[in-house]
Amino acid sequence: MPTLYKTIGCICRKSLHVATKSQTKNSAYLQQIVENSHSDYNTEHGNHNDGSHCDNHIDVNSVKSSILDQALLHVAELGWSEQAIAAGAKGCGYSSSASGMFPRKGADLALHFYQSSNKSLFDSLQAEVQERALRDDDTPKPSVQAFIMDAVDRRIRMTAVYQSTWPQAMGLMTHPNAAGDAFTNLGQLVDDIWYLAGDKSHDMSWYAKRAELAFIYKTAELFMLQDKSEDFTETSKFIERRFEDLGVVVTTLSLSKDFTAGFLNGGMQSMWTIAKNMAGVYPR
Amino acid sequence: MLTLGYRNTLNPLKKRWLSQITFTDKEKAIIDRMIRVDHAGEFGANTIYQGQLAVLGKTPVAPVIEHMWEQEKEHLDIFNKLIPKYRVRPTALLPIWNVAGWVLGASTAMLGKEGAMACTVAVESVIGEHYNDQIRELVAINPDKYKELLEIITKCRDEELEHHDTGLEHDAEQAPFYKSLTEFIKVGCKGAIWIAERV
């Protein structure tokens, strides 16, 4: 704990001795202090985020994420657990009781991993897309299907590093207090991929595309868990087959309106069109 | 966090990600809500005029309605492009707005040309007010950052209010039960706006 105090102490030294009463209360309290001083800071200085005033200011989120990043190194032996977070905190030079900052324990760690993997996938794909845009036009662009397949494959490989312990993480993320965030993360992932693939949909196909891709991703993730092939070649083949099955749906950027309408509305729209035609009022 | 990269479209030889505007999560949430509801609104307006034309397509008032529909199509087109650009989720209730808008347009048109115009007056006055609220909100936050959105919303607002005036010019007030009819439609529109901002 002393090191943690030292780092956050510069923000509010006075209140710290109050905070030593109980372990969990303590960390929640520290967090509150940091967040309060954060908002004070913002109102004082307006929108200046240039960092020049921030020298003695520590962002609680960056402390948290550095602890969790360090904790990931211990997941292989300790699982997605409070122990792994404690080991991570120690690795960052904080007391192991800093793990109290994460009330959802292993689930917080798994969600952090999911989120940061999403971000690194997005960053690397975006860099490639931008680079391609800068280059001359004669280099061929990958097809939408190839682009998405590659993205799913890469993302699965990030998770595959934790193949043996991932089922535990999946279980933790279905827990009611984490399921919402886990769902948001999955949604973020498929939305990122479609956005970078150049999707311009603005109707119900928006939902159809994302639902299909989320389905493919989740099944590929399950397949990966039992894949014993070298370098996960079987998983890659599995992903390819899934895209072939669903080829028409996912590979075209402009889906026919009737198809998506049928897919999600259970034919509601087409029935409506038929009714209008029968009444003879459909505008030509 | 959302970063928009603008490519230089004026000079195709120099394809660059010229300027970048970054929005915080809070700002992104505001933009999301606005573009989603505006897109849904323009979509609904399109179906209303479509419904009106289905009934009044062969009457002398048809060209007036067609002109307004053309402008609505243009608006919808703009918001169709803004949805992917700002990465906004479109409203999940589009099929419902499709049917509801058409039924509203067709049923008021069955009361005659005045009924259709009364419907236009009611809808457009709510939409105009709604766009004004958005303009006020954006100006209060940061008018420079939301320049593009402000320009689009202002243009739409002006044209919607034009439709409102057109409706009044074409005897909207002669419609049967004008007062209660417009009040009823206004309440419905406000409810639809509330839902479309969220779902």
UniProtKB/TrEMBL annotation, chain A:
Occurrences of domain Ubiquinone biosynthesis protein COQ9 HTH (ranges): 61-90
Keyword ATP-binding: no
Any Pfam family: COQ9
GO biological process, one term: ubiquinone biosynthetic process
GO cellular component terms given for this protein: mitochondrial inner membrane
Top-level taxon: Eukaryota
Subcellular location: Mitochondrion
GO molecular function per UniProt: lipid binding
Main localisation: mitochondrion
Pathway: Cofactor biosynthesis; ubiquinone biosynthesis
COQ9 C-terminal domain span: 182-246
Keywords of the record: Lipid-binding, Mitochondrion, Transit peptide, Ubiquinone biosynthesis
Family indicated by similarity: Belongs to the COQ9 family.
Biological role stated in the UniProt entry: Membrane-associated protein that warps the membrane surface to access and bind aromatic isoprenes with high specificity, including ubiquinone (CoQ) isoprene intermediates and presents them directly to Coq7, therefore facilitating the Coq7-mediated hydroxylase step. Participates in the biosynthesis of coenzyme Q, also named ubiquinone, an essential lipid-soluble electron transporter for aerobic cellular respiration.
PANTHER family per record: UBIQUINONE BIOSYNTHESIS PROTEIN COQ9, MITOCHONDRIAL
Protein name: Ubiquinone biosynthesis protein
Organism field: Bugula neritina
UniProtKB/TrEMBL annotation, chain B:
UniProt binding sites for Fe cation 2: 72, 124, 160, 163
Binding positions for Fe cation 1 per the UniProt entry: 42, 72, 75, 160
Name assigned to this protein: 5-demethoxyubiquinone hydroxylase, mitochondrial
Species of provenance: Bugula neritina (Brown bryozoan)
Keywords: Iron, Membrane, Metal-binding, Mitochondrion, Mitochondrion inner membrane, Monooxygenase, Oxidoreductase, Ubiquinone biosynthesis
Single GO molecular function: metal ion binding
Cofactor binding annotation: Binds 2 iron ions per subunit.
First-level EC class: oxidoreductase
Membrane topology listed for this record: Peripheral membrane protein
Record has Glycoprotein as a keyword: no
Function: Catalyzes the hydroxylation of 2-polyprenyl-3-methyl-6-methoxy-1,4-benzoquinol (DMQH2) during ubiquinone biosynthesis. Has also a structural role in the COQ enzyme complex, stabilizing other COQ polypeptides. Involved in lifespan determination in a ubiquinone-independent manner.
Pathway the protein takes part in: Cofactor biosynthesis; ubiquinone biosynthesis
Subunit structure: Component of a multi-subunit COQ enzyme complex.
Predominant location category: mitochondrion
Location relative to the cell: Mitochondrion inner membrane
